[in-house]
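Hi team, as promised in this morning's meeting, here are the two structures we talked about. I've kept the exact order from the run log so nobody has to guess. The first one is mostly here for context; it's the second one we should focus on when we meet again. Sequence first, then the predicted structure tokens.
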Amino acid sequence: MTDTIESRLAARNITLPEAAAPAANYLPYVITGSHLFISGQLPMESGSIAVKGLLGRDVDVGTGQRAAELCAINILAQAKAALGGDLERIVRVVKLNGFVASEPSFTEQHLVINGASNLIAEVLGERGKHARAAVGMACLPLNASVEIDAVIEIG
């Protein structure tokens, strides 16, 4: 099997879902020049939010990392839709912005967002090494625990 993004996803038993439609007056992604901007993705799985609540109160770090991983899977699903199904057009993931719904004393947002960073780096190799932010929030839409957006360079 050729070493492609799709083959690395398959090796992890990850099937990308259909890219989610926007829930309001925005686009799920925008391509301008050689950059793909992907709107914030929630930890959706099988059509619903898989991880809800605040880190440090309702959700532990391991479950938060799984939520971040689901966000990354949904980012890749949006990228696939934007790129006509060809993930090999990804030149580099430039930046991930991770937002973690947290109770006030929780300070491990960076560990939560590692769930997304690790998946992206594993699946995309060197193309997946990125800059990022991991920010605590009082709450996120639909009580999601994590939301992540992305900037991707494309060819």
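And here is the second protein, the one for discussion:
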Amino acid sequence: MKFVEEIVVEEFLPTVRSMLAGELRERDLTQSEVAAVLGISQSAVSKYAHGDVTINRRIADDPRVESLVAELGAGLATGDTTPVQALIELEILIRDLEGGGDVLTALHEEAVPELAEYESSFRVHDPESDLRAGERVLSSLRRGLRVLENASGFAGLIPAVGSNLVACTPDAAGVDDVAGVPGRIFDVKGKATVPGGPEFGVSEHVASVLLAARRHGADASAAANIKYDRQLVDTLADQGHVTAEFDESSDVTSSVGAAIESQPDATVLYQTGGMGIEPITYVLGPDAESVADTVRSLL
């Protein structure tokens, strides 16, 4: 009796770890850095690097394995992909490769020939799990924040209350389903300063605007707030964005909802301020990177 998990441990893991170690070494990570990223010892990395670990060519040559290893290698090297996200993606791949007729199933059936007479799939993980969705949101936010941090002049677009870049999970119901920068992004001596990595549930105001827009039909999963300037709004309109004004002196949820209902395709929402209220512009988009690119286009 042999479980498919034994095939994963004995064949899949050594193969993929070896491939990932090679990808990371090609991207100039040291052996100690590769060991830290993969959660293995430096001696193990050395064995992978010198070909001392036997890999399964049938697994290594599978296009899905090759593609994911390349994607994860690039993401892990830059920090855009976390080890947790890499683990989740590999878990999903394992379940895919355990599907009927796929490579892990074939290897399992060869080890246990009696299985061949059964039409069964060993899929036990949900490819669209909440954890996977959350990791994708955080990964997108990290890339978007990098765009803003490297955008010369972005600090000049930050309002006095600070900016935030937020993104939500596909089925977001509340602020806990929206990730953003804890403490907001501030202009510190002409430089945009991000106080920490993105987290869920740390943005209330910008998250509330995004959620309100979504509840009233907006096709957006991310948002950022920048200072209001009529010229900036006009520039965004010239770029093809639909703009809509709302009144933040009233309830934000209802006023944003009314603006979206009047302009269903709006991707730029703005309010011109009032007594004790700073004028603000909100840029909406399908993901954090797209929103960051839109903001950068104003510079």
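Starting points for discussion:
Residues 118-126 have pLDDT under 50 and may be disordered.
DSSP finds twelve helices and nine strands in the chain.
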